[in-house]
Amino acid sequence: MSIGRFISALVPALFVTGGLLSLMHILILTNMTEPKEEDEFTLPEIVMPDRQIETKYDTSKPDKPDEPEEPPPELPEPEFESPDLNNEIAISPNIDTRANIGGIGGFSSDGEFLPIVKVQAKYPSRALSRGIEGYCTVEYTVTKTGETRDISVVDCPESVFARASIRAAEKFKYKPRVVDGEPIEVPRVQNRFIFEMAKE
Question: Is residue 170 one of the residues assigned to a domain?
Fold first, then answer.
């Protein structure tokens, strides 16, 4: 590199550098001037007026309601129907099941067990699809609490009805037999479920 070129390049560089330094000095002097004073703003004073608070209590007694001239009429006592011992249970709109109850002792004397809840036996779908009809007799013991236990099938020509009959008998509820003021168990109570398709 020749000396002539170096000098020709150095002169513009010095000129540019000097110009930048001058510009920075001018900007610094401009920012160092004091800010202008602005008018002060004064917030107005807020004055709350004096108020007197009074507390009032309602001490007046409510008016006593007028006494009715006539007492309301007495409601008639509801009449309860005695349970039907030989009732018919409808399992579904197209199926009828008649429950025949028998066993040791009758229901004529005082203190005998009485059916309270008779659950409907479900018609087995397999028998329904095949059009099978029949009956199933189960035997059980009515306990001191009116529940059934020891349920067994004693007569069921169509075995397809056995399970549905046992399940229904498990949900039976009785008023237990009472002798000398004490409930006692009643064994060998029988119930027959008759499964028949409803005749249209």
Answer: yes
**Which residue segment(s) compose the domain that 139 sits in?**
88-197
Domain count, the chain: 1
CATH value at residue 145:
3.30.1150.10
pTM of the model: 0.46
Q: Which long-range contacts (CB under 8 A, 24 or more apart) does 128-134 make?
A: 128/95, 131/197, 132/158, 132/160, 132/195, 133/158, 133/195, 133/196, 133/197, 134/158, 134/160, 134/161, 134/194, 134/195
Q: Residue 169, CB half-sphere, CA atoms under 13 Å: how many?
A: 27
Residue 33 forms part of a structural domain: no
Distance CA 121, CA 167 (A): 7
**pLDDT tens sequence for the chain (200 residues):** 677 777 777 778 888 888 888 888 788 877 666 666 666 667 667 777 777 777 766 666 777 776 666 655 666 555 544 333 333 333 333 334 444 444 433 333 447 889 999 888 999 999 999 999 999 999 999 999 999 999 999 999 999 999 999 999 999 999 999 998 899 999 999 999 999 988 76
Is 189 domain-assigned?
A: yes
Does some domain include residue 168? yes
